[in-house]
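Lecture notes, unit on protein representations.

Consider one protein chain, 359 amino acids long.
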Amino acid sequence: MIRQARYETMIGTGGIGSGVFFRLEGNATLGREESRAGCILDQRDYCKLHIVSHYVAALMGSTFSVIPVGRVGLDDAGERLLTEMGEVGLDLRYVRRTPERPTTQAICLVYPDGSGCNLTTADSASSRVDAGLVGESAAEFARFEGHGVCAALPEVPLGARRALLRLGTRHGFLRVASFSSGELRELRRTGRLDQDREDKGWLELIDLLALNIDEAAALTGLEADQADSREIVDAMVSMLGERGQPVMATITAGARGSWAFDGAESRRLPAISAPMISTAGAGDAHLAGIIAGLAAGLTLFESHELARLVATMSITSPHTIHREINPVTLQTFARDLGIEPPPPVVVFLADRAGSGRFN
C-alpha cells in the first residue's frame, strides 16, 4: 500500500523535442568554415520537459498525474515523441500538434575528449508555447487545488513559464523553476529577478530553484570559470536566503557533487562513483528525483538523496532518458553499488516497488 503523497500531480511546461549526437574527429574546436568528419552516435536526446516528466511518472507510479503542457510539430518526430510519452503514462491533453512549426530538433556535437555543444532549432513548435496554451490547463490547477507541483522549465518562452508559475501561485502549488545561464544573466541585468515592471519578480513566484553550477554562477553574477563551486554555492545561498521568504534551491555540479538549500541550511552530497556512459540529461534526472521526493512527502534533503541516486543511474545509459529507471531497478542499482540510502528513501522505493506496477 503506497503511503499518502503530499502532492497528487505535476503540471509542467518546457521543451519537447529530440536530437542526435554527432561525434567529431579530433579535439580541435570546429572552425567557422571548416569541414570535419565524424559519426552519428547511437544515443537519443530529449528536451527538458520530456525528461523530467518521464522520470517523475516512472518514480511516482500511476496514482500520480503528470501533465505536460507544450507543443510538437505535425511530423514524424512529434508523433514518435507523443507515443513515447504516452507509454510512460503522461497525460497528453495539453500537448498540442503545431502544423506550421516542426518539432524541436537538436544536434549535439561531441569531441573525443567528451566536451561539446548543442545546436537547437529556434523557431520550432516549442517556441510557440505561450500563456494562452498554459491557460488552457487552468482547470487542472483548480482540480488539484493545494495538492500539486508546477514546473517551469527552459526551451519554451519565458512568458509561458511565468504564466504557469502564476497559476501555481493562485492555486497553492509547489512552484519549481529552472533557467538557462543566458536567461539568468538577462533577468539579472534587467532587474527582473526581484521585480518585473510593476508585477512580482521571478523569485517571488518560485519556491524551489533548480540550477547547475554554471547557471548558479549566472544568477549571482560570478563567472563559472573564475570561481570555485563552493564560492558560487555560498553566493547563491546568501542571495536566496536573505529574502523575506527564502527560495529553496538545488545545484548540480557533475563529478563535484550537488547541493540542496532548504531556505535555512545548505548541504552537499558527493557524487556517487558508477560506470559512466553519458552525463547528458543527468541534471534533469536529478530534478525529477527532487520533485518525486517532495511530492511523496520527503524533506528536501531526503529528496536530494533520492535525486542523487536517480541522476547516478541515468549516467549509465547513452540516452538522455534511461528507460529502465524505476523504483525496482533503483533498489537493485543501489544494492549493487553498496549504497545505503537514508531510511525515508528506502521506504519511498519499497512503497512504489511494491505497488505491482513494475513487477
